[in-house]
Amino acid sequence: MVNLRRLIITGSNISGEIPAGFSELKNLEEATLSRNGFTGKLPENFENLKNVKILDFSQNGFFGKVPESIGSLENLLKLDLSENGFSGEIPASMEGLRVLEFLDLSFNKFSNGVPLFLGNLSKLKGVYLSGNELGGVIPDIWENLRGVNGIGLSNVGLVGEIPSSMGVYLGNLSYLGLDDNKLQGSVPMEFEKLEFLNELNLRNNNLSGRISFSAKFVSKVGKKLRLDGNPELCVDEGVIKLYGTKARGGFGKVKVCDKVEDPISALVIGASSSSRVGYHVYCLLVLFIFLW
Pfam families, per this entry (predicted)? Predict the structure, then answer.
């Protein structure tokens, strides 16, 4: 057993705690124990598993804090602890997981905000923290995460505004979930720069202002552009028409913005024929005087 390299037990009726000898599997490269009945706390001494690349303990009954020693797994590529009962702060020691590509801690009871150290994990491709009790603001940590293609921050108690830097730096992003939070302010138009984005979920927040995404962007994202549940948000009528009047696509009940008319154009259009002629003559005289 000491030479075991892969331990895969999924979808079984196995229950109880992970045996104490688990941390002695020093040659272990993968431990996938998802969708079982495991309970209890994780072992404290992960530092012995220097060769492990995949840890998947998702969909079990684990609880308590995640051991700080998990941050010593310098070869870890995938960490999935989703759908358990883990609580407390996400360990700061995870900053040591410098080759980590996939992190899923969703649907636990983690708290104390979105960790800033994520900005130092430059190899990340997916980070999913939805369904926790994080709170706080979305930190401006995205400059070094240009390879990320999926971010899940749904229903975690976020407040404040969405950083425009997410649309500037996350050039490979295909999925962004920020729904069911308490976010305020406008929707960054920088999201239009994300050429691979095909799902943007911002529903059920307190966002406000005018959405003026281009026809190209709206057509690309399609019905996976979710903006409903933001009472102070409005969408240009032209954007709504891209979806047709029947279903209104992913906009749900987002209201249509009031039309904004150019005051000079409105004056000219609303005037009589003779008045419009006089107005144009006036403009020509002003231009002649300026050039003279």
Answer: LRR_1
